């Protein structure tokens, strides 16, 4: 049988790389490392192939239509189909003193524009571009990597650790990603496709400056579970490794 072909955006490092590694090692997937930096993507894929695993890389910048078009064209020529898309790439640039400083000098407009351009618009453009290849699969699956911080229900829960942290742009972008996922769940329903949203939890990545959280392998767990669901599995859900997350 042909291996399952999976594209993971932002998979050269962090959670995306942990997801790609686990899918290739534990499930026999052929993983495509989507990486804005072509060289680091090639290095990540080469590391997997040296272990006898199935992996390729493709330059992929989700804020560039040209990059997306070129990446999808390459996947179509090489594989002719895409079974799984994992929308992992994203940014967190809200300014929080002592923790994040990327947006310290950005205007509110620029902060929201840059955040939504990557986390929402770029994710939507990539997913839409992948749709024809996903529809060629016998069993298409999409996993959107979101966050508890995008939960409208949890936004007013004072017991959450995020309640007093001012991440307006990031929170809005992830709430929008959740709605985007539900739209694609409807789109792939006729093909029996499964589209779900995963929160990896607080993980030590570049987004958190590696200051706190679980290892990337832990953050990858629920994403991998959703990417490897069997036909007839759940769709249009939002969850983390502990269970359902309220919308």
Automatic annotation (TrEMBL):
Protein name: Uncharacterized protein
Stored InterPro entries: NAD(P)-bd_dom_sf, SDR_fam
Gene Ontology MF terms in the entry: oxidoreductase activity
Keyword Oxidoreductase assigned: yes
Keywords: NADP, Oxidoreductase
Similarity annotation: Belongs to the short-chain dehydrogenases/reductases (SDR) family.
Domain of life the protein comes from: Eukaryota
Keyword Glycoprotein set for record: no
